[in-house]
Amino acid sequence: MVSRFHARLLLTLGLLVHAVNCSGPEPTKPGSVVRDSAGSVVLEFEGPAWSSSEGWTIASEYFLEIGGEDSGKLFERVRQIFWLGQDTRFVVGDNGARTIEIYDTTGIALFSAGGVGAGPGEFESLDFVGKFRGDSILAYDGRLGRATIFDSQLRYVRTVNNGTSLERVFSRPLGVFSDGSVLTWGRLTWSGSETMDRMVGGGRFRPPHELSRVEIDLGKTEILDTLLHVEGFAFDVDGHPNSMTPLFGRVSIAGVFGTGYFTADTEKWEVVFYDSSLNPTTFLRRMGTGQPIESRQVEELKQQRSRRLPANRFGDIARRQLALMPIPGVMPAFGRGFGSGPSLIADGDFMWVLDYHYLEGVPETWSVFEPARRFYGTVEFPGGFTPMSFSDGWVVGVWKDEFDVQHVRVYEVLK
Q: Which CATH number, 3.90.1150.10, 2.120.10.30, 3.90.640.10, 3.40.190.10, labels domain 4-293+328-414?
């Protein structure tokens, strides 16, 4: 049996040979498509397929808004929003209130579940909500180390708690495959002493984490890969190691796409897609070098981060560390430099990728791809709005007002 690591190595070597002796279609601009003998694809792109008169746009006015101080509904920390298939309903998971709600597109809350606690259907931390088998819904509580299954009307079905085995492999679920198995970040592969040594040494560091596929009913785990996870910056406070997110930090990203999954690392512009057999099939790459970081951008990000730090001793220490922090030469390839929210979103046969975005309130620009075929172009979203899920010409996400209050909004995608 060939491991996925060796399969990817052989695929890469095959593509190098194929680049010299290509029997597939000629590369086309603005993207270049290269196929190897096994049918795998490398899509390298420069510019969009859309002309200046083509392309998708977001409606100037939202179709639906839920939440806000005057609405009687306050969201605290929305973790996930997703459409229920091609349905006109969507699910909102709020980690602040520890609640899950299903809304229709008139803004009516049809069903709700959850609440703070450790009882059946309750959560101490609502770390993930996603579609499960059939029309059921899975929610994961990282503090309690357990998954909860609800039916399509958010009625409690059962709790899956395999004790240390489930807690050991789950760090943060990323998505659910069609067979009900879960794609998740798993264990940190550094030992405790190695992690401490890295932090005591100070500076920027990236811990390796396992990417796993978990059959939660059986507690069975398959390790798919080991990827460098979220970058940190370590510093000392009174002889004790501390860490914070660095400026322009790098991160690995993974998620479910179709019947397979994808992985990416913001260190370079490449997204790798895997099929249902978990073999690499498509490499999506951007031509050219990274965007250099300007001193103006460094100062903008430092000021934004400083405003978010508390007015206490730790905040003062962190501000000093921001001033001393080493800065990389180029921007991350894509993703966001602040807060939370997705950086890549699967939308049927399409993939949306967030162009690197580091300032709050500035409109986000997302690039649209059909991974095995072409780069279509970019779509700009309203300022303060973070898209979270697409379905049949609609997008739902979170918009923050000037008081940092979250509103759930639905916009039409005009195609």
A: 2.120.10.30
